[in-house]
């Protein structure tokens, strides 16, 4: 059992709180039973696993699998667990995992792709990922100036679906969109002042949905190259919807039109 806060392995895990170090090491920080069980379920490559004695006794079968499926599995004290975790009240298990990049599939044979520009809130991104997976979206693209896709808060908010949805980060969204358009994918931008409502679009066609920053929305550059602009009608006096809610409305309208329930 590791009990010292000066343990070198503990210090390496604590560095994963920082995006810079996660990128340098190519590692993720996974926290919580549900997240780690989800990672096991898709055979995600785990490196180091740390749990408390109390957690190990509560989940003996999961612990047994973790010992087999990770490079190292260690029991630590409650104090050490609190130092490793980013949450205030960790449930007793934390792991590092290899940074596995699975971008959205090739342009052929897609139904729907979600593209997010300058998204900043990790909770919003995680919720959108969870929603996109539930709506059977083919994948998600994120602009390079958005919140870190590998942020532990994003992974937690996605509630296990982070591992299942193909996702990628692009530094050139305009070129990416143009590439989709060349493959006959319609590009639909969300905009408060658009004249069409989102249910007026034919989403039985392959579609790329553009959603923007929580406060500023989409950039003029991306709006200008979209094939369609749509709005979500709101009641009097309501300025906007949360971007995660907006994404859910559009993605499930696609699902409704395709009758894929």
From TrEMBL:
<protein>
    <submittedName>
        <fullName>RNA methyltransferase</fullName>
    </submittedName>
</protein>
<dbReference type="InterPro" id="IPR029026">
    <property type="entry name" value="tRNA_m1G_MTases_N"/>
</dbReference>
<dbReference type="GO" id="GO:0008173">
    <property type="term" value="F:RNA methyltransferase activity"/>
</dbReference>
<dbReference type="GO" id="GO:0003723">
    <property type="term" value="F:RNA binding"/>
</dbReference>
<dbReference type="InterPro" id="IPR051259">
    <property type="entry name" value="rRNA_Methyltransferase"/>
</dbReference>
<dbReference type="Pfam" id="PF00588">
    <property type="entry name" value="SpoU_methylase"/>
</dbReference>
<dbReference type="InterPro" id="IPR029064">
    <property type="entry name" value="Ribosomal_eL30-like_sf"/>
</dbReference>
<dbReference type="GO" id="GO:0032259">
    <property type="term" value="P:methylation"/>
</dbReference>
<dbReference type="GO" id="GO:0006396">
    <property type="term" value="P:RNA processing"/>
</dbReference>
<keyword id="KW-0489">Methyltransferase</keyword>
<dbReference type="InterPro" id="IPR001537">
    <property type="entry name" value="SpoU_MeTrfase"/>
</dbReference>
<dbReference type="InterPro" id="IPR053888">
    <property type="entry name" value="MRM3-like_sub_bind"/>
</dbReference>
<keyword id="KW-0808">Transferase</keyword>
<dbReference type="InterPro" id="IPR029028">
    <property type="entry name" value="Alpha/beta_knot_MTases"/>
</dbReference>
<dbReference type="Pfam" id="PF22435">
    <property type="entry name" value="MRM3-like_sub_bind"/>
</dbReference>
<comment type="similarity">
    <text>Belongs to the class IV-like SAM-binding methyltransferase superfamily. RNA methyltransferase TrmH family.</text>
</comment>
<feature type="domain" description="RNA 2-O ribose methyltransferase substrate binding">
    <location>
        <begin position="29"/>
        <end position="103"/>
    </location>
</feature>
<dbReference type="InterPro" id="IPR013123">
    <property type="entry name" value="SpoU_subst-bd"/>
</dbReference>
<dbReference type="GO" id="GO:0005737">
    <property type="term" value="C:cytoplasm"/>
</dbReference>
């Amino acid at each position: 059992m590791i009990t010292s806060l000066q343990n070198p392995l503990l210090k390496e895990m604590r560095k994963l709180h920082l995006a810079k170090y996660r990128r340098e090491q190519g590692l993720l920080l996974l926290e919580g039973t549900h997240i780690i069980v989800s990672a096991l379920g898709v055979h995600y490559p785990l490196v180091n696993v740390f749990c408390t004695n109390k957690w190990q006794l509560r989940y003996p079968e999961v612990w047994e699998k973790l010992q087999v499926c990770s490079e190292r599995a260690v029991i630590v004290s409650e104090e050490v667990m609190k130092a490793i975790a980013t949450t205030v009240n960790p449930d007793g298990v934390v792991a590092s995992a290899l940074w596995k990049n699975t971008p959205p599939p090739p342009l052929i044979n897609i139904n729907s792709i979600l593209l997010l520009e300058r998204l900043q809130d990790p909770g919003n991104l995680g919720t959108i990922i969870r929603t996109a997976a539930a709506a059977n979206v083919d994948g998600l693209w994120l602009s390079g100036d958005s919140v870190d896709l590998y942020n532990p808060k994003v992974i937690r908010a996605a509630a296990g679906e982070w591992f299942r949805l193909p996702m990628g980060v692009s530094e050139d969204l305009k070129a990416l969109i143009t590439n989709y358009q060349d493959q006959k994918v319609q590009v639909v931008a969300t905009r408060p002042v658009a004249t069409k409502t989102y249910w007026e679009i034919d989403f039985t066609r392959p579609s790329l949905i553009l959603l923007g920053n929580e406060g500023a929305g989409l950039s003029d550059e991306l709006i200008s190259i979209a094939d369609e602009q749509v709005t979500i009608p709101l009641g009097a006096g309501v300025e906007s919807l949360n971007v995660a809610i907006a994404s859910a409305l559009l993605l499930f309208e696609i699902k409704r039109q395709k009758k894929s329930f």
